[in-house]
Write a structure and sequence with these properties.
Blueprint lengths: L1 H14 L2 H23 L16 E2 L4 E2 L1 H13 L5 E3 L2 H37 L9 H11 L2 H6 L2 H9 L2 H19 L8 H13 L5 H14 L4 E3 L1 H13 L5 E2 L4 E3 L7 H9 L10 H22 L4 H26 L16 H10 L2 H18 L10 H17 L6 H26 L5 H33 L4 H7 L5 H9 L1 H20 L4 H10 L27 H21 L4 H9 L7 H9 L19 H17 L6 H17 L10 H18 L11 H6 L1
Antiparallel strand pairs: 1-6, 2-5, 3-4
Helix pairs in contact: 1-14, 2-13, 2-14, 3-11, 4-5, 4-8, 5-7, 7-10, 8-9, 8-10, 9-10, 14-15, 14-16, 15-16, 15-17, 15-19, 16-17, 17-18, 18-19, 21-22, 22-23, 22-27, 22-29, 23-25, 23-27, 24-25, 24-26, 25-27, 27-28, 28-29
């Protein structure tokens, strides 16, 4: 293990160089790309036309079959009939034409009648009279009132019949003709139906009560008046054809669609579809590889930004290496599980221990990085577990991996003990089961009892295996990376630890003092959200340096004189101050975690040994105040700050005989105020509100210890200062 730690230290030193960090990210990217490569690589099949397929083949992509779409559109256009429009104004026009013919006849007859009347008048007055026009002259006059079309299309017999018809019959003939023409022209009269329309008019006029000549005349006028009124509309036809084309849905081959079943003959249509989706050897595409590269680069960029934002450089490199190992392990394990897809176990992905990486990173690093890892792993899972369908994304497995990891992180939010990991695995199993069944029910498909049993088993195996792997791998990561986890802290709190036995046997007073400070510190740290267990274990070792000269510390001076009474103040100062640096050195030799060493080194900060400083001043020593201060550094964490306060409080209260509640509260407030005024808490992130909480917690704990005391003697100030 020591050899492994040396190697890890060397790697961490290399990671301090930017180029090696970039190489590590590139390694992660290469592994990710390689793991997903086979799942996006377009499958190439050696199939021949009219051969029999040896397996069921699905489409790897969704693509439009443009040739089939165009064929459907052409067919739709061919089914569109030409559009014809009936011009309704034609009916009125032809009625007006008939009316004008009859009106013209009426005008000619009226003019002839006027001439007859003039003739009669002239005869009576014996004057010259105008000549009355003959029928031929009337016809000529009538033709001048009509157009060439009417004069050429209608025979003279028509004009004669109309001109010679009595006025009453003429009016009847006009009305019958207008009505017949109007009835026919109101209906559609296409080009090929004009003759039938003329016959309809003829039939309608044939059975009238008109005389024969007049009947023939109105029939001829009626036939002449009927014309085509329905005409082809090219614009409307084109518009209808365009609408028909637009209504045709594109023919698509859907992703996952079965193109050919096992044992099916590969027809021309199937062969064309296989070629279209790129499954035949003749086609190659680099798009899937470009897309995979872009996705991998995006993930690496996100990880790079995340680690770049970390403040502590040493911790950053350690976390980066630890994350890389866990992340790569998860990807390789995922790829291993996905290989069973080749044996037709398409749902094998539900067995993947999705919560393992999330739990390890949550416990060993932090929650934010665990969340990021879960999201990335779920994205990768959608590709790796794509059931062998190139180009598809298994969204169901992605959701499963995401929710499984999130469940583990939420359960371990404030519970990092080893026993809680197994409970987290059971919790994850239940969540896995709920997620799987919700997905199955959303699909609304039918499943057999055996399939439901598999999903139930897979859900529990995934959760339990995640917990077991986390428990099994965690000690190796903790030992290799020197991580101070909850498990490690519990081990260090064992009274049989060599250093704790050393304190107990060589400095029993210090051991008792350490236990008391541990009780106070743990309660105060937990009250402000700090690591109470770290504070407790740190207190056990914070005064280990006193074992070098235990008799020089007041808690170990039982039934003996105080040796400081016979020593110069400067010598006493050196002995007292040395216990912090000696303790840190002893802890380093025993390869204790850095956090424990820091507590031993920082719990006094740079405070002043007031008692010996004043003693030296009274004895005439002109030393500076800085000479009587601890070397520090000042507390860097909340735990170290709380332990320093609790250490002083416990020593002060221990020197008091039967302290009252009021005395305890005053003492605690004074010690915290002195620390603030001396700037001893300026380098840690503890707030004034948290210090108030610490004070209240310390007072409550001390009141519980000294609740039975009822006498109120004065405090021995000298002992307080020495402690």
């Amino acid at each position: 293990m020591e050899k492994l730690q040396v190697q890890l230290t060397a790697i961490l030193n290399l990671l301090n160089i930017k180029i090696f960090r970039i190489l590590l990210f590139l390694l992660i990217g290469i592994i990710m790309y390689s793991a997903m490569y086979s799942n996006v690589k377009p499958e190439k099949l050696n199939l021949e036309l009219f051969s029999v397929s040896e397996k069921t083949i699905r489409s790897p992509v969704t693509i439009e079959d443009k040739e089939s779409t165009e064929a459907n559109r052409r067919e739709a256009v061919e089914q569109v009939n030409d559009v014809y429009r009936v011009k309704k104004e034609y009916a009125q026009n032809r009625v007006d034409l008939v009316t004008s013919i009859f009106d013209s006849v009426s005008e000619v007859n009226t003019e002839a009648q006027e001439k007859m009347d003039q003739l009669k008048k002239s005869a009576a007055e014996d004057t010259a009279a105008p000549q009355v026009p003959t029928i031929e002259e009337k016809i000529q006059i009538l033709k001048t009132k009509l157009t060439d079309n009417e004069t050429k299309s209608l025979s003279d017999d028509v004009f004669i019949a109309l001109l010679e018809a009595p006025k009453e019959e003429w009016q009847i003939a006009k009305d019958l003709t207008v009505t017949a023409v109007n009835n026919t022209m109101k209906r559609s009269v296409p080009a090929d139906e004009v003759e039938n329309a003329k016959l309809n008019v003829e039939e309608e006029l044939k059975y009238t009560s008109l005389n024969r000549s007049l009947k023939r005349a109105v029939i001829e006028i009626g036939r002449y008046a009927v014309v085509q009124n329905e005409f082809y509309d090219p614009d409307a036809t084109d518009e209808l054809r365009q609408q028909s084309m637009d209504s045709v849905e594109p023919v698509r081959i859907l992703e996952g669609q079965i193109l050919v079943s096992e044992g099916q003959l590969i027809s021309r249509d199937i062969y064309k579809k296989l070629q279209l989706v790129g499954l035949l050897k003749s086609g190659n595409s680099s798009k899937p590889f470009i897309g995979l590269g872009m996705l991998t680069a995006l993930i690496l960029f996100g990880l790079y930004v995340f680690f770049k934002e970390m403040d502590n450089a040493e911790k950053k490199q350690k976390n980066l290496l630890l994350f890389s190992i866990i992340f790569i392990t998860s990807i390789l394990l995922m790829k291993l599980v996905s290989l069973f897809d080749n044996f037709e176990y398409s749902e094998i992905g539900y067995l993947f221990p999705a919560a393992m990486g999330a739990m390890l990173i949550k416990i060993l690093i932090n929650e934010r990085l665990a969340l990021l890892q879960v999201v990335i792993l779920s994205i990768i899972g959608t590709i790796i577990f794509n059931e062998g369908i190139t180009g598809t994304l298994n969204v169901s497995l992605g959701i499963y991996i995401l929710l499984s990891g999130l469940a583990a992180i939420l359960f371990l939010q404030k519970q990092n003990r080893r026993t809680k990991i197994l409970q987290a695995g059971l919790f994850v199993s239940v969540i896995n089961l709920i997620v799987i069944f919700s997905i199955l029910f959303l699909r609304n498909s039918q499943y057999s009892g055996l399939e439901y049993g598999f999903y139930l088993t897979a859900a529990f195996i995934s959760g339990i295996v995640s917990a077991v792997l986390t428990i099994g791998l965690q000690p190796f990561f903790e030992a290799g990376f020197g991580i101070l986890s909850t498990m490690r802290l519990i081990e260090l709190s064992n009274p049989n630890h060599p250093l704790l036995r050393k304190i107990l046997t060589e400095a029993p007073g210090t051991y008792h003092h350490s236990v008391m400070v541990a009780n106070l510190s743990e309660a105060a740290c937990e009250a402000i959200g700090a690591n109470g267990l770290l504070a407790r274990v740190g207190c056990y070792y914070h005064d280990i340096g006193k074992t070098k000269r235990p008799q020089f510390f007041i808690e170990n001076q039982i039934n003996m004189d105080n040796p400081h009474d016979k020593l110069p103040a400067l010598t006493s100062k050196n002995i007292i101050i040395a216990h912090a640096t000696d303790g840190a050195e002893m802890l380093r030799k025993h390869r204790m975690p850095k956090e424990i060493i820091d507590i031993a080194e920082q719990h006094h900060g740079t405070t002043l040994l007031k008692f010996f400083y004043h003693k030296a001043t009274k004895s005439g020593h002109e030393g500076k105040e800085e000479d009587f201060r601890y070397p520090g550094p000042k507390p860097q964490t909340k735990e170290a700050a709380v332990i320093g306060i609790a250490d002083s409080v416990e020593a002060a209260v221990r020197s008091m005989n039967h302290p009252t509640h009021e005395q305890i509260e005053t003492l605690v407030a004074k010690i915290i105020r002195d620390r603030l005024q001396d700037n001893q808490l300026s380098e840690c992130d503890i707030t004034l509100k948290e210090l108030d909480t610490v004070a209240d917690t310390l007072c409550e704990t001390l009141k519980g210890i000294f609740h039975s005391r009822i006498e109120y003697p004065e405090m021995n100030k000298q002992k307080v200062k020495q402690g």
